[in-house]
Write a structure and sequence with these properties.
The complex is a heterodimer of chains A (184) and B (677). In chain A, strands 3-4-2-5-6-7-8-10 form an eight-stranded mixed beta sheet. In chain A, strands 1-9 form a two-stranded antiparallel ribbon. In chain A, 41% of the residues lie in helices and 23% in strands. Chain A is an alpha/beta fold. Chain B has helices at residues 4-62, 66-74, 146-196, 211-450, 455-673, and strands spanning 82-89, 94-98, 115-119, 122-131, 134-144. The chains are: A alpha/beta (184), B mainly alpha (677). At the A-B interface, helix 1, helix 2, strand 8 and helix 6 of A face helix 1, strand 5 and helix 5 of B.
Chain lengths: 184, 677
């Protein structure tokens, strides 16, 4: 499984190079989503959900993607049928707060707007790990936010938001992340 | 003491050689053991360190964070023995590496699977990196093993020094011990040899205070005792020799006489005793036979009882087997029922799973309907709000209409009043017109009277008359008009008041409509809330249903397993039934053979008791014979007693003399051997 993940990372790097060489190519976001899908898998491995929100033995880990069908397909491609321990991964599209219950990770693709903020609120209410990719996502109540540092994908964590949601994040993961606070 | 020195030297050298061999073997084993222990300890420490570092760098590798991984590896600078470290990703590429300044140009090896190997003075450790049970890469650590090698070298050196020292010391101690122990012992050995050769004059050195000194003192005491004894014996031997010679001659004569008499009696007595002992023996054998026959008989009776017991046990066993057989058939029947129940349960489980799927589909449908109903509720809520604002506007417009109607009614009332005043004016005009007509008639009459002169005036009078007519007609027309206007105005007033009433009713109804709409709005919002609750409840229900479905699938698997087990048990129960049948047949056969054995043992018991009776008869016969034999024996014993007494006296004298003379001779010889002076 992790061979696939690494292959996905390698593919993402190739696509990123291709995107850099051909600026008109639209694959930049696609490649980015492959790496982000690999990171989302690792989040699923390193975050502990509260008992009530944890998936049952035969249930999948559900990643909800907000921001359109294209983003959802890109993430599903990046996951590539991988699994976390005994749980398979299910990627579903989330557009309304009512769709948030039942998801374990909520990935808000694209820029943060008013709809996205209601989704973050819903995620906090249903113990879902909210992950974004726009500046200020974590500072405005999201838990994890992706950002780029050079050619590397990095992430920042709002630890207070994670605690308020009832999630435990691995200290190893915190060591790699930039920590932010709400309202920064 | 021939060759003694060479033997002791050989012993010393053998001791030293044995010590040396065992020391060398021990030293080699120690060095080998220490090498192995040291290597194992180094490997254990290294693998432990590798595991710890692997755990700490797993997440950095998973998140592709080279700098964090190198930071983790750099913490190995604290361990002096680490030469280099690297993390390989799953494809074998070096992801991160670390080498302290002393090993900047370290040549990293190619990736291997989990391994620990010594490369010259280095230990290379490859440890898989796992994240949540999945191998995502390999950690490589190179350790400096040269301290271990130098430690082992020092160890070998110390063991060698100890070996040489121990050898020298043991040879020294062996030679000293030889001198201290073997020399006095040799003196003792020499003195013992002299005593055994008859030289009782020897004396050993008894100065030593240890065990050897005590041995020497005891030895000297023993030699002294021997010397005194030999002296006393030597003195009495001479007298004894003389007395014994005289006795010997007299004894020889007596002996010859007694021997003749004794020989004859002894022969008779021996024959009688042989017969007697034969009878006794026969009697004993017969009694033994009788006893053993009785015992046999008793044993057989006991055996018979035991066989009877076995037979009754066999009957019980047979009954128990019958009961077991019945139970086994019941068990078989029960198991068949279980199998049938399991089949029913299996069908029910399948049905339940089917129902659950249908239920799941219907829950989905409910979910969609709830979503649709939520949308509808929200739409109707919006429309109700729009309707409510429209009703508000309507009420406002109605109010305006009402006030307009009120203003209109005022105007119409005023118009009616003004029509009244117009009517009065018209009456005045009508009066003026009548008077003008009268005046014109009067003028026409006056003009006719005036004749020709009044003709012009009559023309004027005609015109005035016509004018009065026209005025009168106009006034009448105006009056008609005014009446019409008055009627219309009255109608308008009525219409206006009716319209005003209608407007008021309309306003009241609009207010009712507004309240109704407000209620509709509240209800629609409540409905929307409920629809949202239904949607989330349906979601939860769907999740629960998924879990129930999973559980039912598990139940189906368990039921399948129970089904398989029950079938296996069914066949096993059939097998048990067959086996119980076989056991029962065997029991019946055993019962038959027990009966036969019982009959046989009874026959044996009867035969044994007959044997006992016969033995009793034989014993009686033997006892009869024995009583006559005892009479002969008694006479012979009296006779023999006299002869024996004679012979015993002669023999005693004779043997005493012989012994005495032999002893005297031995003593003389022995004492002659010792040298005491």
């Amino acid at each position: 499984v992790s061979r696939r993940t690494l292959r996905g990372v390698a593919l993402a790097a190739c696509l990123a190079c291709a995107a850099w060489l051909v600026p008109l190519h639209a694959g930049a976001s696609q490649g980015g989503y492959d790496a982000k899908a690999a990171f989302l898998l690792n989040f699923a491995r390193l975050v502990i959900w509260p008992l009530a929100a944890r998936p049952g033995p035969d249930e999948p880990v559900v990643i909800g993607v907000a921001g359109g069908e294209a983003a959802r397909e890109a993430i599903e491609r990046g996951i590539d049928g991988a699994s976390v321990e005994s749980h398979r991964i299910e990627v579903r599209s989330v557009e309304k707060p009512e769709q948030v219950p039942g998801t374990h990770i909520l990935f808000v693709a694209g820029e943060l707007d008013a709809d996205a903020e209601t989704l973050i609120e819903a995620a906090r209410g249903h113990a879902a790990l909210s992950v974004g990719e726009s500046d200020g996502f974590a500072a405005r109540g999201g838990i994890i936010n992706f950002f780029s540092e050079g050619d590397k994908l990095r992430f920042e964590i709002n630890l207070a938001a994670a605690r308020a949601t009832g999630l435990q994040i691995s200290s190893h993961m915190l060591g790699l992340a930039r920590l932010v606070e709400t309202g920064e | 003491m021939r060759g003694g020195a060479s033997i002791s030297r050989r012993l010393t050298s053998a001791v030293v050689a044995t010590t040396a061999a065992s020391l060398v073997a021990a030293a080699l084993l120690f060095v080998a053991y220490d090498t192995r222990t040291g290597r194992t300890a180094l490997i254990d420490r290294s693998v432990m360190l590798a595991r710890v570092v692997g755990i700490h760098s797993a997440v950095a590798l998973a998140f592709d964070d080279t700098s964090a991984a190198e930071e983790t590896l750099a913490s190995l600078a604290a361990a002096d023995s680490v030469l280099a470290a690297a993390i390989y990703d799953e494809d074998g590429r070096r992801f991160a590496s670390f080498a302290p300044k002393s090993a900047r140009d370290f040549a990293f090896p190619a990736l291997r699977s989990q391994d620990q190997l010594f490369q010259g003075t280095q230990l290379h450790v490859f440890q898989p990196i796992e994240l949540k049970g999945q191998v995502i890469g390999t950690l490589f650590l190179a350790f400096d093993a040269s301290p271990l090698a130098s430690r082992i070298g020092w160890y070998a050196f110390i063991v060698g020094v100890v070996l040489v020292g121990a050898l020298g010391w043991s040879s020294l101690v062996a030679s000293r011990l030889h001198r201290q122990i073997s020399r006095p012992l040799a003196g003792l050995v020499e003195s013992s040899r002299a005593i055994s050769e008859g030289d009782l004059r020897v004396q050993v050195n008894e100065d030593a205070g240890d065990e050897i000194g005590r041995l020497a003192r005891t030895f000297n005491g023993m030699a002294r005792g021997l010397r005194d004894l030999v002296e006393q014996v030597r003195q009495s031997t001479g007298a004894v020799s003389e007395v014994s010679l005289a006795l010997e001659q007299r004894g020889a004569m007596l002996s010859r006489e007694a021997q003749r008499q004794g020989g004859a009696i002894a022969e008779v007595t021996t024959s009688v005793e042989q017969v007697g002992s034969a009878f006794v023996e026969a009697n004993a054998h017969v009694e033994e036979l009788a006893a053993s026959s009785r015992e046999t008989s008793t044993s057989i009776l006991e055996m018979d009882a035991a066989i009877g017991e076995i037979a009754s046990h066999m009957d019980e066993l047979t009954r128990a087997i019958d009961t077991t057989s019945v139970s086994a058939s019941q068990v078989a029947a029960n198991i068949e029922e279980v199998v049938a129940s399991v089949h029913t349960l299996k069908g029910a489980t399948e049905g339940t799973i089917g129902s659950l799927s249908e239920l799941s589909a219907s829950v989905l449908e409910v979910k969609e309907n709830a979503a649709g109903s939520l949308t509808l509720s929200e739409d109707s809520s919006g429309e109700a709000a729009v309707g409510r604002s429209a009703v508000g506007e309507t009420v406002d417009a109605m109010g305006e209409i009402q006030s307009a109607f009120e203003r209109l009614a005022d105007r119409v009332a005023r118009l009616a009043e003004k029509s009244q005043s117009i009517d009065e004016i018209i009456q005045v005009i009508k009066g003026v017109a009548q008077q003008t007509g009268m005046l014109s008639l009067n003028a026409a009459i006056i003009a006719a009277q005036a004749g020709e002169h009044g003709r012009a005036f009559s023309v004027v009078a005609d015109q005035v008359s016509a004018l009065a007519d026209r005025s009168h007609r106009s006034a009448r027309e105006i009056a008609d008009l005014i009446h019409a206007v008055q009627d219309d105005t009255a109608a308008a007033v009525a219409a206006v008041s009716e319209g005003s009433a209608k407007v008021e009713r309309g306003v009241a109804r609009s207010r009712v409509a507004d309240e109704v709409l407000q209620k509709i709005l509240q209800k629609t919002e409540a409905q929307a809330g409920r629809a949202r609750e239904i949607a989330s409840a349906t979601q939860r229900q769907g999740n629960d249903l998924g879990r129930v479905q999973g559980a039912m699938r598990t139940v189906r698997e368990i039921v399948d397993q129970i089904d398989g087990a029950a079938q296996v048990q069914q066949s096993a129960t059939a097998e048990i039934g067959r086996t119980i049948g076989n056991i029962r047949q065997l029991g019946v056969a055993v019962r038959h053979s027990t009966e036969e054995q019982r009959r046989g043992s009874r026959l044996i018991a009867e035969a044994a008791s007959r044997v006992a009776e016969m033995a009793g008869q034989i014993a009686d016969a033997i006892r009869a014979q024995a009583s006559s034999r005892e009479t002969i024996q008694h006479a012979m014993q009296v006779f023999d007693g006299v002869a024996q007494e004679t012979t015993r006296g002669v023999e005693a004298i004779n043997s005493g003399v012989a012994t005495l003379s032999a002893r005297a001779k031995q003593l003389e010889d022995g004492v002659g051997r010792f040298k005491t002076r």
